[in-house]
Amino acid sequence: MLHFYRCRHLKQITQKCFSSTHTRTDKHAQLPLSRSFVLTELRKSWHSTHSLIGDKNIILMGAPGAGKTTVGRILGQKLGCCVINVDDDILEKAWNMSVSEKLQDVGDEQFLEEEGKAVLNVSASGSVISLTGSNPMHEASMWHLKKNGIIVYLDVPIVDIISRLKLMKIDRIVGYNYGAPITDLLQFRRRYYKKWYDTRVLCESGASPEEVADKVLSAVKRYQDTDSETFISTRHFCSKDQEQKVSTKFFSEAVIEGLASDGGLFVPEKEFPKLSSREWKSLVGATYTERAQILLERCIHPADIPAARLGEMIETAYGENFACSKIAPVRHLLGNQFILELFHGPTGSFKDLSLQLMPHIFAHCIPPNCNYMILAATSGDTGSAVLNGFSRLSKNEKQRIAVVTFFPENGISDFQKTQIIGSQKENGWAVGVSSDFDFCQTAIKRIFNDSDFTGFLTVEYGTVLSSANSINWGRLLPQVVYHASSYLDLVSQGFISFGSPVDVCVPTGNFGNILAAVYAKMMGIPIRKFICASNQNHVLTDFIKTGHYDLRERKLTQTFSPSIDILKSSNLERHLHLVANKDGQLMTKLFNQLENQHHFQIEKILVEKLQQDFVADWCSEGECLAAINSTYNTSGYILDPHTAIAKVVADRMQDKTCPVIVSSTAHYSKFAPAIMQALKIKEINQTSSSQLYLLGSYNALPPPHKALLECTKQQEKVEHQVCVANIDVLKIHVEKVIQNQFIGKVS
């Protein structure tokens, strides 16, 4: 066996042994929390550059021509440690011949096997190891290296790899069929790279080896320093005699808990990660799933979800269940207006973009010895998206995770109601409530904050409550991706060059969708203005214009756009927390005042700060229908009512000096009666199925949504429960569902 040791003494790591996992104590039970706690403790001592790796190896992985050898030498100089080049220091010494000669002698298959065996004989500590491009194709040797190493993937654009290979004197590449394009081999290899890496370094075009080496060091430090990425409640503040870290949570804990114990919402304690302009440019030609993985890797620490596992989740979430391979395509509408189509998922709304992924994230984060009941409130689209997303979990996961979604029984469209009820599966239930969305959402928050009730469920049934609304950080975060992706698509399609500003216009009631655009800007997307579009329930528009959030004498109005028929906007708290420089004490004051006195007023300086980035307006029902009609007549495109509201507001508020991306949050099929009324189609009194087929005969854009057409074919009427607007009644229903799902009995 070949042994390699550090050339210079590096600080030894003191590792602690843990006999139990991290627990949270309350008056009812001790619950196991984030799996990242143990990893955090094991990595705490690795901080300074000199002692960065300790006894661990930094293992550089990537395609031929990625720069592994050059970057490895630079890292060795910076760290003062041994550098091992697998080609030169292991293979050629073991074989007494060049790698190209060996490959020519034994062929691809035998070469991979002998290469793997040679690597299995390597024992290294505190070194930098530069792999060959084919090492990751041998599973046993990669597991051997991974046990004592941090695998860093040097992700170089394929066009750059091809250019470099032309300049390099390489006789043969393992697996390369010289009659096929080299891109096929490089794409094939990427599957293996994605399987093994612990952290990725984007090696954008033009980056020098020294810059890449510095990025490797930063990536390794981040990988080990889990304490640096924590979450706090928007209502978190410390008095002088309190420790700052008391209320912080890891990502996995924030996802599991959903809502903070003080009633606030979880937000990152530090700033959002920011990509450089060169890194963004490297994503212009990437697919949606590739963009999602790179962006979410920056926002989710690998101790919470390893990068390879996160990649698997993303590929599962954005696969064949989306009708469009581009997932969230951007379509030019008219003039400077572009439509971001967010309705190609299985339930036809923008909620699918997060709720096809969030259940997998949630299932990964939860500890193994508890059952979880997800509670969700829906104003129309969330319900079916939640039920659909959680129904796609594995059989074992569905035995431990169940969903109850509460919706206003008479406050959503007929199609939305049919869809929610029809989406009930073996681990998901829909419950109508004789009230509005605001009651449903408030009721869920109060249930979460009822420690007696939640503690009882934990002790009696071993079940913990959590949420799937955008109050849950794991639900909100994936929405950042499509706002960033839409900008990159405009660059890719040649409408703008990278760095040119755009405005975004979002129809919103709960503020989550537009807040995700704010986070995209914080990551480096040059968004100029956020245009908030409201319907007749325009509390958000009034607030942005005045700084006064006033629910007194304001009643919810049912509109053609039910998904934004909301008066209590949960995610506004997250943005105000940001605008107010993370003043948790102020958030506590404001939102307690809203709860008790039904209004609050922010100071003038905060209003001015808010209005630097935001403009807002609202749209009447008549204007909404007129926009649907006029857009169809001029472009052949059918807007759903929510998108029509955004277009009306964009027409009114946007100065046309830059492109505006209008978020289309649902497919028009979900609101067929309103569309037919707008288009002056007389055959309105038909079944949902016949209405959708009639609209499909118009050959309009976007085309009919096949999954929604299938939804209307349900012949049997699916039953669902209806509750009165009473929190105690909702609690009783939640307990009965838990008994049925996890205990198998009803008291």
From TrEMBL:
Pfam families: SKI (PF01202), THR4_C (PF24857), Thr_synth_N (PF14821). GO terms for cellular component: cytoplasm. Its cofactor is pyridoxal 5'-phosphate. Residues 247-318 form the Threonine synthase N-terminal domain. SUPFAM superfamilies: P-loop containing nucleoside triphosphate hydrolases, Tryptophan synthase beta subunit-like PLP-dependent enzymes. The modification N6-(pyridoxal phosphate)lysine is found at K351. InterPro entries: P-loop_NTPase (IPR027417), Shikimate/glucono_kinase (IPR031322), Shikimate_kinase/TSH1 (IPR000623), Thr_synth_N (IPR029144), Thr_synth_N_sf (IPR037158), Thr_synthase-like (IPR004450), TrpB-like_PALP_sf (IPR036052). Keywords: Pyridoxal phosphate. It comes from the Eukaryota. PANTHER family: THREONINE SYNTHASE-LIKE 1 (PTHR43515:SF1). Belongs to the threonine synthase family. This is Threonine synthase-like 1. The lineage of its organism: Eukaryota, Metazoa, Chordata, Craniata, Vertebrata.
